[in-house]
Every structure is written in C-alpha cells, then in structure tokens.
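Predicting holo structure, acetyl coenzyme *A bound.
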Amino acid sequence: MIVKYNAKISGTGRYLPEKILTNKDLEKIVDTSDEWIVTRTGMKERRIAADDQAASDLAYEASLQAIQSSPIRSKDIDMIICATISADHAFPSTACIVQQKLGLKNFPAFDISAGCTGWVYAANIAKQYIENGAAENILVIGVETLSKITNYEDRNTCVLFGDGAGATIISRAEAKDISQLIDADISADGTHNELLIQRAGGSRMPASQKTVKENLHTVQMEGNKIFKLAVKSMYQACHTVLKRNHMDMQSIDWLITHQANMRIIQALGNKLKIDEKKVIVNIEKYANTSAATIPIALDEAIRNNKIRHGDIVLLASFGAGLTSGSLLFRL
Ligand code: ACO
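Done. Tokens:
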C-alpha cells in the first residue's frame, strides 16, 4: 500500500457502568472465593451494565469523551469501527447505532468480531484508511456487555468478565506531528476457534428452547488451553513489530496488554524483559472486558498523566478466534 499520510491517536475516552460486582458478591452466587479469584486472576471487582444498557449505550458515552478530548468535533468523524462480541444485535451493527446516537450519517460504520483482540484489529484497519487518504478521523471503539452472555452458574467463566467501553479517535497526522501509529501486526489461528465460543444463536445452532435451557448462548471457554497460547501469541506479535521497526524493549515507555489474567500479563512482561513499572494494569478494577480492555486502560493511563505526549507505547492482545495482535505508537 502507498502510505500518503501518517495516522495518530488524537483522542481517547472510556465508560464503565456504575454497578460493581465484587469477588465477595460472586462468593454468594457460585462456589468460589475472593482468595481463588485474586491469586489465579488478579481480579477484585468488575462493572456490570444495567438491564436497560446495551453495548451501544456504553460505546456512545465513551465516544463522547473521546471526541471531547480530541481537537475534532463529532461532525469531522468520517468512519466508525466498533469491535465487539456482545453487540446490541446480531444486526444492525453497533457502529451504525452509535452513528445514529451521535447524530451523524453518510459515512461507513461497521463492527468487527475478533474477540479480545477486536480493538487492535479495528485500530489497524483505521490506520490503513488514514494512511491511504480515504478517511481523516475514525472513531474506533472497543465495547462489551459480556455480563449479558455470561452464565452466572459457571464459576469457570462468570468470575472473569466485566462490562465497559473504550473509544479512540484515530486521525490523519500533520507532517510536523511526532505522534504516529508506527506499526501493527494482527493474526489468527482458527484451528483453536472452539476454545472460546458462544455456541448458540447463530446459523450453526439457531436459538431454540433447548439452547436457552442448556445455556448455550453464553460464553464457553477452555481457559487453561487459552492461557498457554496467550503469552506465546502476544510475545510473537510484539516481537514482529519491534523487529520490523528496528526497535527493542528499551525503546518502549509503556506496555498495555489485554487484561485477561494478571499471571498472563506478568508472564508476557517477564518474557519481554520490561520493567514492571512500565506495564499498565487495571484488571483488579474491571476484570476482562474483552475488546474494551486496551482502549479503557489506554484512556485511564493518559488521563492519569502516566502516558504522555511523545511516549512510545506497545499494545498486545489475544482472544477468541484465536486472534492476536500488537500496535506500536507514539502518543
Ligand atoms: N473458583 C474456584 N475454583 C475454580 C474457579 C473459581 N471461579 N474456576 C475454576 N476453578 C477450579 C477448577 O474447577 C479446577 O478445579 P479442579 O482442579 O478440581 O478441576 C481448578 O480451579 C483449576 O482450574 P484451571 O482451569 O486449571 O485454573 P487456571 O489456573 O488455568 O485458571 C483461568 C483458570 C483463570 C480461566 C485461566 O486459565 C485463564 O485466565 N485463562 C485464560 C483466559 C483467557 O485469557 N481467555 C481469552 C480472552 S477472553 C475473550 O476473548 C472474551
């Protein structure tokens, strides 16, 4: 592809629902303990969307913040990409609903499904559109309402997930800008597609009374198999972008990985040999919000004045598919 322009992050925002579900609360629902959840995952609490809150409601709030924090106005947005596996509906896309909520129309808006790597996939797609000149300001959202597709009788999964949204504006950079999306690498290994799955509700297993009774519309996961693949695939994605850009971990100011398990974050940090002070973690507060973990953590770190203009940031994620990816940028 001929790169005409550079892309940069020009705004970020997040929204977390008010309701907090703590480990102690979960002790009352399934056979688990605060001690098990904290030592095995690092999670202490997670946010849960209200009954009347769908993915687009969370995404809209995060998007307003992202627009507010950027120099652009909502009318300058010329594309919306929404990464989610817990959309408002199978169709229309959540991106189209967010477009309507923002009072915008007449430009492309679409969802992508790449599990927890969704926002990294979406940011990489946005990067291409900015670089080839086809768009100037793209709203890239990662949003999940996983509580709506979680089986609260299954302790293997229900302790892990939370709801939330992160939004980012990816814009054309000016020639004088130091901010830039430097490189991204996305991949998938579909041989593992059954390890993390919502079995029913699609064309393979249409919704029926039987599927509802057997809880087949909820997230099913073989967690320990994914665990083993997670570190390897994220390490590979990080290594690829660093090598391609003749950089090493010494050049990286901050690492943000998908917040699926504290032990996975630590294992990746150790393998990459990065100082743990440079690793952004918020898993204790929000648990695994799938496609939303990275844009939420990014926004939080920017607003807390950790990540500053000019810093070099490496993002890495993995998720259902199994997908994986990394994004390297200077803020
Ligand atoms: N409370 C108490 N005990 C539990 C719980 C719980 N909530 N959940 C599982 N256990 C038990 C199991 O039943 C098992 O008991 P057994 O030995 O008697 O059979 C024991 O704990 C160990 O189970 P494991 O699954 O081996 O535990 P592990 O240390 O692997 O931790 C976990 C499980 C947290 C799920 C971990 O494997 C993990 O984080 N995996 C990765 C998950 C992930 O990253 N998913 C992809 C992203 S999510 C997305 O894309 C939407």
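The mean pLDDT is 97.
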